[in-house]
Write the structure tokens for this entry.
Amino acid sequence: MATVGDAERLIRRGLALSALGLAGLSAVYVLALRFTPVERWQGLAQKVFYLHAPAAWSALLAFSLVGVASAVYLWIRDPRLDRFAESSAEVGIAFSCVMLTTGPIWARPIWGTWWQWEPRLTLSLLLFFLFLGYRALRTTLGDPAERARYSAVVGIMALVLVPFIHLSVYLFRTIHPQPIVLKPSAPSLPSEMLRTLLFSFGVFTVLYLGFVTTRYGLALRRELSGGDDA
Amino acid sequence: MPEPPATGAYMVAGYVVTGVIVVSYAISLWWRAKKEKR
């Protein structure tokens, strides 16, 4: 049985991990802006990619784990899974905001337009709206068991979109760049650029872990102190 | 060899926006942790 002390411990660990992630993010800025070469055809705008791709990775990781936790919740009805899904969804929305703003900022000088209604962008936006709906659903349902059950169904439905988003560049005609790291063959990037990108992937993963641990601790503490956390 | 295009303003915008979103979310978590403890 979890206690308020456990929740406080989780919050402290989560905040420490988040602080480590933020320090890592400042290191990514220094590494990308100072020690990574400028791409010849795109110029400095290409450096947005060192934040955009890892933010997209963290968002899709967060949303995938919501789906997995939701599916297992419907099977074994463990409230910890619902609490985790709720926390991961909120963190995923935050990373989606980074993904959906940095993408158009990069696209404007490279594609000549802020937005294209092509499969990957459209599906990513749809996924973002689905999780806003997920959050809204959680706040409108009062009964915790009912809320967990209904939101788990939405979480699983959203999970179906994730592989389509990743594979959309292969399945459809699209102007979105092909994957550079997460692809069947070896990464196609000069070593200095690849080093910065992989470091940023690591930092965004640490940020995800820090944020989700803190958010989980907050939800647990509120539940134990008699409040209701949606 | 051609000079890279001048797209530095977009890079700055991307880095500022990311910093604002990530740091704001981290502060909101810290604030909730502090406020709800009282």
In short: Chain B touches chain A through 26 residues (CB under 8 Å).
